[in-house]
Write a structure and sequence with these properties.
This protein is α/β, with parallel strands linked by helices and 348 residues long. The chain is 44% helix and 16% strand. α6 runs parallel beside α9, α8 packs parallel to α11 and α12 runs antiparallel to α13. The radius of gyration is 21 Å and the shape is globular. It starts with 6 loop residues before the first strand and ends in a 10-residue tail after the last helix. 43% of the residues are buried.
């Protein structure tokens, strides 16, 4: 008799030969004889031994692991979208194969699902042996139906990672989907998933050990020196396009707390973009030079609050550094609208 699958763990794999075995071992050690868990792997045309490692594990655990492969590299979004289509479980959990699951995570997850049956479960994570990073600021260890608080709590934490959210698979029916050919795909997907969840439950325990590896997308954005990558920053600036409108429709308006934290998220990304822009010079977008005012327009269009209004709220909340950084970034954008930064002495 076939056992119903209550969880599909989804791994998008690309050139992670040094990490994949540890990730799979961390899962298999907890799955044991639970035939209700499946692991689905999509190898996105790896050029190292990742596919061979995945196949070796599959041959040892054919009732648990399914391995699929792309003929050509299509990017993590395409791999994740295929994983959604291949999943059979009632719930799905994206896990990056360079991370691993901490002990007890699957057992705690099963307990939450059996007790509360939420649409969305949020967990925390570790980046070191001692430090625990929160993924959500809001009610803990209780079922909540407040979507506004869910949006506020996730945006306040700034942790959009899909691997921190275990979701009912039906939420992905008819969207959202990860944007193929773009980066910052979690920012372009997770907020819409929040709106689709009828209820949620936050477990304030680390279930994932996060490892930042050389060559990852976030590593390339943070460490690529001397270059302003206009394409990546354009993807970031556009990632939340349409979200405030979707939030307004779903909630019948935008609660003040959600408006503040979504706008704060956009403003922080704009400030970081502005500082990189000034340091490394002009960006290009489709072959044409764009100024910092271009990115201001994109970020501000996604924010429920105008940035000048947000700056006033920073002062009211005694967020003086955020106020000063935002006002400085706005000043830079206004200057770039009328003159070249290289002629103002602002660019090196």
């Amino acid at each position: 008799m076939a056992h119903p699958i209550w969880l599909s763990v989804l791994l998008p794999v690309y050139n992670v030969e040094g990490y994949l075995a540890a990730c799979l071992d961390s899962l298999l050690d907890q799955i044991g004889k639970d035939h209700g868990v499946q692991i689905v792997i999509v190898d996105d045309a790896s050029t190292d031994a990742s596919h061979a490692i995945a196949q070796s594990f599959c041959s040892q655990h054919p009732h648990i692991i399914k391995v699929l492969r792309h003929g050509v590299n299509q990017g993590v979004s395409a791999a994740r979208n295929r994983l959604i289509d291949e999943a059979e479980g009632e719930h799905i959990w994206f896990v990056d194969p360079d991370d691993y699951i901490l002990k007890g995570a699957l057992g705690q997850l099963r307990t939450v699902l059996d007790t509360y049956n939420p649409d969305l479960i949020l967990c925390d994570y570790r980046k070191s042996r001692f430090a625990i990073t929160r993924s959500f600021f809001g009610p803990r260890k209780q079922l909540s139906l407040d979507t506004g608080h869910l949006v506020s709590g996730v945006f306040k934490s700034r942790k959009m990672y899909c691997w921190l959210k275990i979701s009912r698979r039906s939420l992905w029916r008819d969207g959202p989907r990860f944007p193929e050919g773009k980066i910052f795909e979690d920012i372009a997907t997770t907020p819409w998933l929040l709106l689709k969840a009828r209820n949620h439950y936050h477990v304030p325990s680390p279930w994932i050990f996060y490892r930042q590896r050389a060559g990852s997308i976030m590593d390339s954005v943070k460490r690529k020196s001397g270059i302003f990558d206009a394409r990546k920053h354009q993807d970031l600036a556009e990632a939340l396009s349409g979200f405030k409108e979707a939030m307004h429709e779903r909630l019948g308006g935008i609660p003040h707390s959600a408006a503040y934290y979504v706008s704060d998220f956009c403003a922080k990304e704009f400030v970081k973009t502005a500082l990189r822009f000034v340091r490394y010079g002009h960006g290009t977008d489709g072959g044409r030079t764009v100024g910092l005012d271009h990115y201001l327009e994109q970020f501000e269009k996604c924010a429920p609050m105008h940035f000048d209004k947000l700056a006033v709220h920073y002062l009211k909340r005694l967020r003086f550094l955020r106020y000063l950084l935002l006002k400085y970034a706005l000043y830079l954008a206004n200057r770039s609208h009328t003159s070249d930064l290289g002629d103002t002495g602002l660019a090196p």
